[in-house]
TrEMBL record:
SMART domains: C2. It holds the Pfam family C2. It comes from the Eukaryota. Residues 62-179 form the C2 domain. Keywords: Calcium, Metal-binding. GO terms for molecular function: metal ion binding. Coiled coil: none annotated. The lineage of its organism: Eukaryota, Viridiplantae, Streptophyta, Embryophyta, Tracheophyta. InterPro entries: C2_dom, C2_domain_sf. This is Synaptotagmin-5. It comes from Abeliophyllum distichum. The keyword Metal-binding applies.
Length: 204
C-alpha cells in the first residue's frame, strides 16, 4: 500500500512535470450571478488537464497471485486542509466613518463545513492569523469559499469573496498567496494553505 509520504512525493513530481498545464486556481463568481455559475460537481463538468493526469495517476494495477488477474486500484484524494486566514488589505469602507468591522467566513463546498474568524473592529486592513482545519473527502472535486463580511449591530454587509480549487495545495503541499476579492471595489485576502494527505485506496 502506498503511504502518505509516497503520495506526497508523487504529487510533487507531478507538479514539476506538469507546471505548464496548471490552470487557474482562483475562480470568481460575480456578485449576484450565482445562478449563472456552472456547478463543478455535476457529471457534465470536465476536469482540468492537471486533474485528469492526477486522477489517472492515482489509479494503479495489482496482480493477484491466483491466476494473474489484474485489478484497478483507485485512490480517493482525501486529506486534511489547513487554512490560515492571515490578513486583508484595502477593504472597501462599510460605514459613514470610512471604516469596517470585518470577519471572514470559510466554507468547504461539498460538505458545507463552516468556520469564521473573529471580528476586527474599525479596520480596513485587518489581521487575523487564525487557522482552521477541514476534513476533505474528495480533494479533486471540492472548493474552498471565503467570504468577507462587515459585522453590524443590526446585521451584516457583504464585502467580497474568493473561491479556490484545491488542486494547487494538493500538489504543492503548502503555499501562501494573496487573492483579490470578487464582488468588491477593492480588497485582497492573504492566506496560507496546507495539505496533509490521507488517501483512501479502493479496488475496482
Amino acid at each position: 500500500m502506498i503511504g502518505s509520504l509516497a503520495w506526497s512525493n508523487y504529487a510533487k513530481s507531478l507538479l514539476r512535470s506538469l507546471v505548464d498545464i496548471v490552470q487557474l486556481e482562483l475562480l470568481y463568481i460575480p456578485n449576484g450571478m450565482e445562478n449563472g455559475f456552472t456547478n463543478p460537481f455535476t457529471q457534465k463538468f470536465s476536469m482540468t488537464s492537471l486533474e485528469k493526469v492526477l486522477k489517472s495517476g492515482a489509479e494503479g494495477k495489482e496482480v493477484v497471485e491466483n491466476g494473474g488477474e489484474v485489478k484497478r486500484r483507485e485512490v480517493i484524494v482525501r486529506g486534511v486542509l489547513s487554512v490560515t486566514v492571515i490578513s486583508a488589505e484595502d477593504l472597501t469602507p462599510a460605514d459613514l466613518m470610512g471604516k469596517a468591522d470585518p470577519y471572514v467566513v470559510l466554507v468547504l463546498k461539498k460538505t458545507e463545513s463552516k468556520n469564521k474568524t473573529r471580528v476586527v473592529n474599525e479596520s480596513l486592513n485587518p489581521v487575523w492569523n487564525q487557522t482552521f482545519e477541514f476534513v476533505v473527502e474528495d480533494g479533486l472535486h471540492d472548493m474552498l469559499i471565503l467570504e468577507v463580511w462587515d459585522h453590524d449591530t443590526f446585521g451584516k454587509d457583504y464585502m467580497g469573496k474568493c473561491i479556490l480549487t484545491l488542486t494547487k495545495v494538493i500538489l504543492e503541499g503548502e503555499y501562501k498567496d494573496t487573492f483579490p476579492l470578487d464582488g468588491a471595489k477593492t480588497g485582497t485576502l492573504t492566506l496560507n494553505l496546507k495539505w496533509n494527505p490521507q488517501p483512501i485506496y479502493r479496488d475496482s
